């Protein structure tokens, strides 16, 4: 099965990293600016007054490299392509000989930008919550013309070669969708579309973060049997194509919640750090509370060595701790994002 360049690690690589106390991935966040208004956005909730500057961001990357990081993922805090220092940071990551993956809403990817991204070997995780214009636009704030811009961005990436596989059977393009009432019946089509077009599919539950905390979280979650049936169909499709994986869906008070990544083990705790736009350090997108500390008080290297998240990671069985638990209460601590 194909992987996304920079995001494909074998179990041996993951276990070795955990044993040796090394990181594999680092998620960073640039300026909190965005042209969309997604109702559940985990970052676009407030104006951050004390954002990291370019030098601080570069230092995080240097420290990450020292700790073994192979891939830096630019995950926000808004639309990364709108950040003033985006290209400078991409160049810096490349100078460090690290892989770079950028989350993007795709709407700003013109032919020229696609070409520049491709030349810089920037892998993309593009947002696609629906093939239907009306549904897609509902989840980006009903902005007129945005759907067409996203489609154009996707086309530009494909035209420039983003879905051509390399020798390691990796693509440069992933599509990411959140499970919503309006798109749950499209999930199978989304998955098959990605598989058939050499795009890496990412399907996830909405986390209880940012704007998603401003209304009843249950409103975003879909009934357990509906999620389970959609995931089962996807699982069967992959099995028929020679790729087997276990179902990891929690029944949370009648609602279906995906644990980890669909079709993959979650390897974040123990091999990944997220550093938010103001320097706070966390394991993953569960970015509530104080986390492990702030890089303005201690370096990332010191925070990692002192907090030792890899010791938790090594205790995980099957790489994702959550999958072995049936009782919601038992995983509450690890998944505050899915309260
Ligand atoms: C914060 S966005 C930043 C990058 C870019 N603006 C985008 O939307 O792709 C990074 C990823 O997080 C996803 N996301 C945003 N809010 C979320 C939430 N509450 N739960 C789960 N995923 C979320 C987005 O769909 C996107 O794939
Ligand atoms: S999810 Fe991405 S595109 Fe949507 S508002 Fe947040 S940062 Fe912007």
What does this structure look like?
- The protein is an alpha/beta fold.
- It is 32% helix and 16% strand.
- It is built from eleven helices and 14 strands.
- A nine-stranded mixed beta sheet has the order 8-7-5-4-3-2-12-13-14, covered by helices on one side. It has a three-stranded antiparallel beta sheet with strand order 9-11-10. A two-stranded parallel ribbon has the order 1-6.
- A hairpin with a 4-residue loop joins strand 12 and strand 13 (280-282).
- The chain is globular, with a radius of gyration of 19 Å.
- The two termini are 33 Å apart.
- The relative contact order is 0.15.
- The model is unreliable at 321-329 (pLDDT under 50).
- Bound molecules: S-adenosylmethionine and iron/sulfur cluster.
- S-adenosylmethionine binds at residues 34, 40-43, 75-76, 78-79, 103-105, 127, 176, 178, 204, 206-207, 209-210, 212.
- InterPro entries: 4Fe4S-binding_SPASM_dom, Aldolase_TIM, Radical_SAM_PqqE_MftC-like, rSAM, rSAM_sf.
- Keywords: Iron, Iron-sulfur, Metal-binding, S-adenosyl-L-methionine.
- This is Radical SAM protein.
Notable characteristics:
339 residues; 9-stranded mixed β-sheet; 3-stranded antiparallel β-sheet; 16% strand; globular; binds iron/sulfur cluster
Summarize the structure.
This protein has eleven helices and 14 strands. The protein is an alpha/beta fold. It comes from Selenobaculum gibii.
């Amino acid at each position: 099965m194909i992987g996304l360049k920079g995001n494909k690690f074998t179990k041996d690589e993951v276990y070795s990293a955990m044993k040796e106390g090394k990181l594999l991935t680092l998620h960073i966040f640039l300026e909190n600016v965005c042209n969309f208004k997604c109702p559940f956005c985990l970052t676009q909730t407030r104006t951050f007054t004390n954002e990291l500057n370019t030098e601080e961001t570069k230092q995080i990357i240097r420290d990450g490299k020292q700790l073994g990081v192979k891939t830096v993922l630019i995950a926000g805090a808004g639309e990364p392509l709108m950040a003033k220092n985006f290209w400078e940071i991409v160049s810096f990551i490349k100078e460090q000989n690290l892989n770079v993956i950028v989350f993007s809403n795709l709407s700003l990817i013109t032919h020229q930008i696609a070409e520049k991204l491709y030349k810089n070997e920037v892998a993309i995780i593009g947002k696609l919550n629906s093939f239907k214009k009306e549904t897609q636009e509902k989840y980006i704030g009903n902005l007129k013309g945005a759907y067409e811009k996203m489609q154009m961005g996707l086309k530009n990436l494909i035209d420039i070669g983003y879905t051509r596989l390399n020798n390691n059977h990796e693509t440069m393009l992933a599509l990411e969708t959140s499970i919503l009432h309006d798109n749950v019946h499209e999930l199978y089509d989304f998955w098959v579309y990605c598989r058939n077009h050499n795009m890496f599919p990412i399907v996830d539950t909405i986390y209880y973060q940012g704007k998603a905390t401003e209304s009843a979280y249950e409103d975003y979650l879909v009934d357990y049997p509906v999620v389970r049936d959609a995931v089962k169909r996807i699982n069967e499709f992959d099995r028929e194509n020679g790729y087997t994986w276990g179902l990891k869906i929690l029944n949370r008070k009648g609602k279906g919640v995906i644990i980890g990544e669909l079709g993959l083990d979650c390897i974040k705790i123990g091999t990944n750090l997220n550093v938010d736009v103001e320097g706070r350090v966390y394991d993953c997108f569960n970015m509530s509370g104080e986390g492990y500390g702030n890089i303005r008080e201690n370096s990332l290297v010191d925070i990692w060595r002192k907090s030792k998240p890899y010791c938790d990671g090594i205790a995980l069985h099957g790489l994702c701790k959550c999958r072995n638990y049936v009782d919601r209460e038992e995983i509450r601590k690890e998944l505050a994002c899915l309260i």
